[in-house]
Amino acid sequence: MGLSYLVYPGAHHTRFHHALGCMHLMQKAIRVLHFKGIGITPEEEEALYIAILLHDIGHGPFSHAMEHSIVESVSHESISLLFMEKMNADFDGALTLAIQIFKGEYHRNFLHQLISSQLDMDRLDYLKRDSFYTGVAEGNINSERLITMLAVINDELVVEAKGIYSVEKFLLSRRLMYWQVYLHKTSLVAENLLIRVLKRAKELIDKSVALSASEALSFFLQHKITGQNFSSSVLEIFSKLDDYDIVMAMKEWSASSDVVLSKLSAMIINRDLLKIEISTQPFDVTTEKDKIKKCALLLDISEQEAQYFVFSGTIANQAYHQNKQNINILYESDKIVDIVQATDQFNLEALSKPVTKYFMCYPKHKD
Amino acid sequence: MGLSYLVYPGAHHTRFHHALGCMHLMQKAIRVLHFKGIGITPEEEEALYIAILLHDIGHGPFSHAMEHSIVESVSHESISLLFMEKMNADFDGALTLAIQIFKGEYHRNFLHQLISSQLDMDRLDYLKRDSFYTGVAEGNINSERLITMLAVINDELVVEAKGIYSVEKFLLSRRLMYWQVYLHKTSLVAENLLIRVLKRAKELIDKSVALSASEALSFFLQHKITGQNFSSSVLEIFSKLDDYDIVMAMKEWSASSDVVLSKLSAMIINRDLLKIEISTQPFDVTTEKDKIKKCALLLDISEQEAQYFVFSGTIANQAYHQNKQNINILYESDKIVDIVQATDQFNLEALSKPVTKYFMCYPKHKD
Amino acid sequence: MGLSYLVYPGAHHTRFHHALGCMHLMQKAIRVLHFKGIGITPEEEEALYIAILLHDIGHGPFSHAMEHSIVESVSHESISLLFMEKMNADFDGALTLAIQIFKGEYHRNFLHQLISSQLDMDRLDYLKRDSFYTGVAEGNINSERLITMLAVINDELVVEAKGIYSVEKFLLSRRLMYWQVYLHKTSLVAENLLIRVLKRAKELIDKSVALSASEALSFFLQHKITGQNFSSSVLEIFSKLDDYDIVMAMKEWSASSDVVLSKLSAMIINRDLLKIEISTQPFDVTTEKDKIKKCALLLDISEQEAQYFVFSGTIANQAYHQNKQNINILYESDKIVDIVQATDQFNLEALSKPVTKYFMCYPKHKD
Amino acid sequence: MGLSYLVYPGAHHTRFHHALGCMHLMQKAIRVLHFKGIGITPEEEEALYIAILLHDIGHGPFSHAMEHSIVESVSHESISLLFMEKMNADFDGALTLAIQIFKGEYHRNFLHQLISSQLDMDRLDYLKRDSFYTGVAEGNINSERLITMLAVINDELVVEAKGIYSVEKFLLSRRLMYWQVYLHKTSLVAENLLIRVLKRAKELIDKSVALSASEALSFFLQHKITGQNFSSSVLEIFSKLDDYDIVMAMKEWSASSDVVLSKLSAMIINRDLLKIEISTQPFDVTTEKDKIKKCALLLDISEQEAQYFVFSGTIANQAYHQNKQNINILYESDKIVDIVQATDQFNLEALSKPVTKYFMCYPKHKD
Q1: Whether pLDDT at D249 is above 70
Q2: Which of B23, B240, B243, B251 to mutate to test binding with chain C, by most C CBs within 10 Å of its CB?
Q3: pTM value?
Q4: Which of A186, A346, C189, D57 is most buried by its number of CB atoms within 10 A?
Q5: Are D78 and D100 in contact (CB under 8 A)?
Q6: Which pLDDT tens digit goes with each residue over B297-313?
Q7: Which of A140, A180, A353 sits opposite B137 (nearest CB)?
Q8: Positive or negative CA dihedral for C229, C231, C235, C238?
Q9: What is the homologous superfamily of the domain B4-184+322-353 according to CATH?
């Protein structure tokens, strides 16, 4: 949830909670499938638990911001995989099957779909959990029922026809949670500021400016880490990095002599953020340029530096992706139809088209 | 909820709970509007509480079934009004303002809309309550937030723009609850059986067959009551009629010597209902006729009587009605847009078109 | 919960809900014991489910009132047993083991304790459920944790030492629920009135007064049923008797020509009950006699009949019974101590002494 | 809750949540008292909100540990007061009344009791909240009902007699939460380790060892702050100190060259704590001395240093304090009785006696 607690103060749940929750749902799913006669061996069961417990372990602190600043070209899935492989070595191959399932290389595809698909245990847990902790009650989904409706046909996960309204509701909740929570405009500003804090810090360190930071954070500020040089010693350091490193750094940097770094950091720490406008149309380039000039003048910084405070971008939300691990509905005992075709009225096609919005951030006007 | 507890055993909540719940939401709504500077006098406030507490008092037992059998041409709203007028006489005019608001004759229209519109306290309570007691978690709505978003413009109730996702979610939940709960196929059979039980009982009584029934129920079985002859003494008797009269009668009628009445009654009491098929297309008339013949033969009754066990019909669901107490969204401080136009992606237009389905009921085949 | 809904309007849950809840807890308990290495065979497991689902089936409508009026000398446990034996005959002996466990005749005593003891699944369900539906939040217990703490030593159910605070809390909740809910003074009046309604009806029928009642209820009013003559045909009729029979009768009897019966019935139906006083001391006999005289005069009935409206009695509550299926606490791996000795401070001994209170009911004074 | 999340992973709620919760309960309490005719002026109301929102603001990070290490002789209440006085200066005296009420210097004593007494809004919120977030369901209290039962007699807060079971339950929950959560043995070890981490850090800094720490934390490690020298500039620095400073420091110190500091820090960070024994008797001094010697030998440190890892102490819990802002029960309209005398059975006197337990911590034995 990154910095969402700045908007929804209740949202203080952790990734550990989420991992336990996914595990819990996986246990239910396995019980349901067993009950329906789908054989799952004890080895496969254990592998599913391992894979779901570890599926998010590669997320760094404020993950999405990190992916745009510090470990730029490395996805969290690939880091999760590195962790699993490290553990597999430590535990003499005990994670081999879990890794195969996680990577989708195991022959029974529905096991992979329980870990990663448009109706996986991950989504079933986080939508419900985030809805609960934010208090956005409309985002609540019926994971219990969705799991009870699961079945397996030709090694593919499907949903029994009478669960169709729950699937619709699930997709709608996903869309609602995106706009109302994950892409909430205040979180959006905060996340963009955090990306820029880290970018500025890297820039300063490249210029040999001394910056207070934990050892682990310092390492990632000083080195350009990519998928290529993400060695096991990098992984070790990465594992030490958490929210404390980032927030503590921003607290110290709020008093930095670099006006850009100190202002950006203080904005997050004091929750005194930039103004943000959202529109269905792109913003006028001239307006943005004007604001940059004004900001540069006001803060006595270069126009290039002013772009840390005045910037624009896009956000997109697509509740359902056709042709990508579809959600399939099962009729009678073997007829399978994609949810978009199966629904009788509600225009799910709309949900499968991405919606793009434009935003522009700039300092609050003080006269 | 009528006979929904045959499908959702938790659904044992009562109309009294609903009345208290509506009252509770009304208190919240008034507090919110006060806070936004909408003046509501203490007299208007009291009238709103009276009107919302009594809005459903005209519902008889298993109301919807009754309206199709016993008090055929009289709506529950008009009976609620009769009760209010009776009380108004008893309490020396203390309900006059409540009645005006209930009837929509008071000059401040938003007060009426709090009682009766597409976003009234009635709907906000029953959707949430029914979702809770049935366990159909997806039907949950965020009444708290919807109420907080209410405002009044030109004496009309509107919803502030940032509540738009909650409104969408509310309409979706409404649709989902209709298909999943209110029009659930098993409830549908049960309700249709109940209508036929009462119809058959009237028929037998017309033929002077003696039937065990409470005094109140006997009265309505013996007389044809319409809006015209619904006198205050009829109202008095009507007020004594509740679920106990109906269920007790069916329990006794299960042992009736009339095979039609006893079988229909026993089907409900023993929850051993007719089979039902649902389709998006009308059913073939020949099939129905065949089933009627077969049933007549099997039970040794006339083909006309067999139509108590073999019948077809339609159900329709329309989540949103345009041009009928619209839900209006407020932009900035005065721009008002209907929800269907206001939504950015999700095809609410679809929701405002009625969906019709066809059903056919007939005895379970026993070979 | 009998007539508790007259005090707690939310308390509309049913015995069916309770049976399902007990079953659910039993599944958890079995899973926990399995996990701790206590072998339970599939046959024993099935028997436990049957026994817990049926343990309360012998309760008639408003059970406690019935036991004092209609089926006077027959406990609901013995009727449950009759039902089980009937089903056992129908199902070719499939309930034999369930019956043995239910009666405590099976050699593994802990199985019986799961069904019936001071920490059985029955209590764990009803305390939590009644606390939830009445809204008496303090009565809430942690069934989940209590079950997780269960263990078996020498075929006896025990609670691991670290669950001790949960047991204390469970006993306290039990006491609180008794005073606050089960023995709530308004429920107490209502229940005593119901007993007297049925007693009066029997009296009138003995005098050949015609009374409207369902067939099943009529049977029990006309016959004196004891443990001796509770034949299978009686059981058949008993199975048809439910709340509807009783409430419908009282609705009709409210208009009875017998003033005692009509007044008693109307008091319950219209929730216009007798006044009740509670005291830690017995009431003065003279006061009671005076009130009886006054009542007889006022209603123009005999003094004997007036005792239907003026009466006194006692209520007792004992949260914990020593020497009767004790709750035992397990220290280390084999030391077992009764909860009363095990607790370190809180005076549980007090809880194991019965508390008796006195009550007197009489008509409300109207000047 | 300090380090309780090491035991109860769900316990991630914050002091901000608690402040909002208290505010919410205060609004309810004021509404109830208004309804009962207790006049509270708008100024008093506002002052109550200010005082309850700020009552805990003086808590530092891991407050209880801090009070034993860094700001040794200064209570959090006195720091809360310093913050309020600072704000009062900034806001031109707007907090004067709030401060008077907070200090108990205002003539209407019940207002102070709402802020601070044995049944204040603080306790009503934190017991319920901590019970919820830890999942220790037995600790749940019925704040709603307790508040509804509040009344004021002679400017003193009292509880109406019919709320007596809820008060009993509240005291029991308090006791249960103390043993089960606040004094849970694992939290106890963790808290004692944290105290020693900070103590060791101060010791090292006194010896001029360089230690990585945030500016704010460094200040408190370098200076001995007491109630005497807690100036407004100290307050300013104190306000910058939060959990991030402490946890980040421990993360860095885990790699310190000082073996005592690094081991203590790592124990908390890696949740690999000391072993703890709890007893109702004091521990034998010889055993402790032996363990100290063994530890010194094993870690190659002095015996004095070994006392960082081997130590003993006491914990005490007293659920109710007689003669200190008693909880008084109101009978009829003016008879007031202390809860301990008022209760009819349950030995509350036991609850008003402190219970003391002894603990000893030492390194886990590794053979």
Answers
A1: yes
A2: B251
A3: 0.85
A4: A346
A5: no
A6: 999 999 999 999 999 99
A7: A140
A8: negative
A9: Hypothetical protein af1432 (1.10.3210.10)
